[in-house]
Design brief:
- It contains 13 helices and 16 strands.
- By secondary structure, the chain is of the alpha/beta class.
- The chain has an 8-stranded mixed β-sheet, with helices on both faces. A 4-stranded antiparallel β-sheet has the order 12-13-16-15. Strands 1-2 form a two-stranded antiparallel sheet.
- The protein is globular, with a radius of gyration of 22 Å.
- The structure holds 4'-deoxy-4'-aminopyridoxal-5'-phosphate (PMP).
- 4'-deoxy-4'-aminopyridoxal-5'-phosphate binds next to helix 5.
- The site of 4'-deoxy-4'-aminopyridoxal-5'-phosphate has 15 residues, from helix 5.
């Protein structure tokens, strides 16, 4: 029996596969689309390609022997707890420890307001699940984190982008957009922002703007969702004060151990006002019953017994060296007309190509020259970003970064020659929101 006969319906093709269920999916599943650049990234993960695309933390810098001993010790000593179901809110002791971590960014909070989640990605999913009806508006910086845009699309939110410059969200733009939407009766559910070491923008909201953004949202009655996985990975000075540090009622704060320890544990969290916290716990239970006790206790054990602040310092120094390698190489090698941000922390640089060039069209040529980046359109929900690209410096060694930039500069120069000869570079190809998958997040 063929698949078609089996399900008694006309199959539709999706890529090369036949999908017999195409007319049965919920409407929200139409927002879940794989990026057409995924196939290219399968090639880009080959060792000869320098990938400036992925956002993978450099976990090799962890003392892996220590992690091994810690995990083994955990099973031996606390196996019956570590291997059992846990609570929907998360391990109480870990939640206390999370409060200690957040104190580094000026946040004073009680463990009772923390919900442990499967990475901050799940916190994003739960927040969206409890707030968004189809068509509701979410405000987000333009560009914004691709994984958040994918979540918003999955719940059929309408994303309205707020302009950003090298100092973060432009407050006037935020106020004007809110006003324009509210006078038409549009429901804005929350502002999603990554104020510190933005992914993909590589910029940080300055101190004055933080207060302005808090004030604007407070006046307009708009909740802020502050996503802060990179906050402790600044390259100069002390960590910045989180938005949540100055407003405990109007901000839901999302944190993660993915970048300060390792993403494989999948431990993140949300810190939320009481009522929202209650809903998050219920949503968490309906999603997964409880987070893995095993990885929560492992992270708790790590924080209790290891010099975690020193480890974060090691990561910061490593990423700073890679950031410098990327910025120096861009300065030395990029043709005139290419511009880029200068991140003070985090993993990413956001580059802009000269007029007439399209980053998605450039990608296959770049991959053929053994260098990869993420095209800018995936970071917008409105088709913007065709001249932009995200370059990450977290994973490759500094000399590989320099080599990657040399190859990329060569491709861009070639493209510029085409543009100057024929009037335009390779044709633009935007097709909507991309979800390039976890390796590129
Ligand atoms: N938010 C942002 C801005 C990110 O860059 C990422 C991962 N790249 C996440 C959330 C999700 O991270 P995790 O689920 O691993 O905590």
């Amino acid at each position: 029996m063929t698949e078609e006969q089996d399900h008694g319906r006309t199959p539709a093709t999706q890529g090369s596969r036949i999908d017999a269920y195409v007319d049965r999916y919920a409407a929200r599943a139409t927002g879940m689309v794989a990026s057409e650049i995924r196939a290219l990234f399968a090639v880009a993960s080959r060792p000869e390609v320098v990938s400036l695309a992925g956002g993978m933390p450099y976990v090799t810098a962890l003392p892996l022997d220590m992690v091994g001993e810690l995990v083994s010790d955990l099973v031996t000593r606390r196996g019956p707890v570590a291997l059992q179901y846990g609570s929907g809110q998360g391990d109480p002791h870990l939640r206390e420890q999370i409060c200690e971590v957040m104190r580094l960014e000026g946040i004073e909070a009680g463990a009772d307001d923390v919900v442990v989640t499967v990475g901050s990605q799940q916190a994003l999913d739960l927040i969206t699940r409890i707030f968004i009806d189809p068509g509701d508006v979410v405000l987000a910086e333009g560009p914004s984190y691709v994984g958040a845009l994918g979540t918003f699309a999955a719940y059929q939110a309408r994303v309205v982008h707020i302009a950003m410059d090298d100092q973060g969200i432009i407050p006037e733009s935020l106020a004007q957009t809110i006003h324009a939407l509210q006078v038409t009766g549009t429901r804005i559910k929350f502002l999603y922002t990554i104020p510190t070491y933005h992914n993909p923008g590589g910029v940080t909201m300055n101190v004055a703007r933080r207060q302005q953004v808090l004030d604007i949202c407070h006046r307009a009655g708009i909740l802020i969702v502050e996503d802060n996985p990179y906050g402790l990975l600044g390259f100069d000075g002390e960590p910045l004060r989180a938005l949540r540090a100055d407003n405990s009622d109007g901000v839901v704060y999302l944190g993660s151990f993915s970048k300060t320890l390792a993403p494989g544990f999948r431990v993140g969290w949300a810190l939320a006002p009481h009522a929202i916290r209650d809903k998050l716990v219920l949503a968490m239970e309906s999603a997964v019953l409880s987070h893995s006790s095993f990885t929560q206790l492992a992270v708790g054990q790590y924080l209790a017994t290891q010099p975690w602040r020193e480890q974060i310092k090691t990561f910061r120094e490593l990423y700073r060296e890679r950031r410098d390698a990327l910025l120096d190489a861009l300065e030395a090698l990029m043709p005139p007309g290419v511009t880029w941000t200068k991140p003070a922390g985090g993993f990413f640089v956001w580059a802009t190509l000269p007029e007439g060039l399209d980053s998605k069209a450039l990608l296959p040529r770049a991959v053929a020259e053994r260098v990869a980046f993420v095209p800018g359109t995936g970071f917008f929900s409105d088709g913007s970003g065709s001249r932009q690209m995200r370059l990450s410096f977290c994973y490759p060694q500094p000399d590989r970064i320099r080599e990657g930039v040399r190859r990329l500069a060569g491709v861009i120069e070639q493209e510029l020659r085409l543009r100057d000869t024929f009037g335009t570079g390779t044709a633009p190809t935007h097709t909507g929101v991309d979800t390039p998958g976890p390796d590129l997040a």
